[in-house]
Amino acid sequence: MAASPSTPGFRTGSLPALDFSARLSRRAQTMTASAIREILKVTQRPDVISFAGGLPAPELFPLEEIRAATGTVLDRYGPAALQYSTTEGHPPLREWIAGRHGIPAANVQIMTGSQQGLDLLGKVLIEEGDRVLVEAPTYLGALQSFQPYLPRYAQIPTDEGGIDVDALDEVLRGEPAKLLYAVPNFQNPTGRTLSLERRRRLVELTAQAGVLVIEDDPYGELRFSGEPLPSLYELGLALHGDVERNHVIYCSSFSKTLVPGLRDAWVEAASPIIRKLIQVKQGADLHTPTLNQMLITELLPLLPRQIETVRRVYGERAAHMLGQMAEHFPASVTYTRPQGGMFLWVTLPEGVNTTELLPSAVERGVAYVPGSPFFALGGGENTMRLSYSSARPEQISRGMEALGETFREALG
């Protein structure tokens, strides 16, 4: 039996209290809580319509197909579906992913969600003080993933066509940079899409400068209007003619196309990067859950139909939100018009602080994400992100009316 604190010999209360905060690493001390996650905590009231979380529509999850696939996988693989597996990932799944870009399966690493991919890429690529280029604004989760590795950020301005490549060119002519992080398709948080001309120039400029590009593409399949565009990774393959020379690293996920809870994602990259990702993933979680990877593989024939359903629903919801915004928002409030994905971006007149405005919106029963956390070096106080993916039409109507009232009160 273990000794209790009251066992003779223990002098309770006689030892100094340990300062746990002082024992944290410098890396840990740079970490901050996700602004989105914190906002989600205060919007759990059933009477609040939340456009804050980037959540896929749960009513679209293929529950029956997943239930059937689970039985099929267990029948086919038996205990192997529940056993430890290789770090690299389930071979049939890696082969299917590799076939999309015509690369060897050895250049694909399965990840436990895109967020792990970003974290591990930060671990193997970023040294303290490395200059990392990001869009302004950019995906908050990427900033959180990279920050513990202590980069120095440089913000690249964006407009309706995505990254301003003239500004990027100017930045690349200055101090050397290690890598550029970009979300070219239906960007989180703005919903903007990088134009084809800018994609080509971005790939060429970064190749000439010797800058790695991390292309984060979880939304690329969710286009509901306009024409598909080649990924930066595909343009990099065309430029270099060889997967082993391609300076673009491609990240994507099944979270937005199938279901987020299985946490299956992947990274495509040159072999030296993949080898290091394997090593750091071994230290992180050994491998992505075996059963989950087998389930995703079993569900691949369903994927085209599932994507088509998601595109249609998200397109309808985006159109409805844009229509309601035009009806209820003051004329001085502007917003993006996404061609796909899950988000749009709202800009209020200068001087309005959307963080300070949030309590007033919540009082009216609606929530959003203030824009400033999406800027690596500050800015965007008058902006916000709205997600339409998991909101039903009647919620969108009530929410946009409430936001319009909030804006008009703030603008006087």
TrEMBL record:
Boundaries of every Aminotransferase class I/classII large domain copy: 78-403
Quaternary structure and interacting proteins, as annotated: Homodimer.
InterPro entries: Aminotransferase_I/II_large, Class-I_PLP-dep_aminotransf, PyrdxlP-dep_Trfase, PyrdxlP-dep_Trfase_major, PyrdxlP-dep_Trfase_small
Organism, as annotated: Deinococcus reticulitermitis
Protein name: 2-aminoadipate transaminase
GO biological process, one term: alpha-amino acid metabolic process
Top-rank taxon, per record: Bacteria
Cited Pfam families: Aminotran_1_2
Keywords associated with the record: Aminotransferase, Pyridoxal phosphate, Transferase
Cofactor or coenzyme needed: pyridoxal 5'-phosphate
Residue ranges of coiled coil: none
Family, as annotated: Belongs to the class-I pyridoxal-phosphate-dependent aminotransferase family.
Gene3D superfamilies cross-referenced by the UniProt entry: Aspartate Aminotransferase, domain 1, Type I PLP-dependent aspartate aminotransferase-like (Major domain)
GO MF annotation terms: pyridoxal phosphate binding; transaminase activity
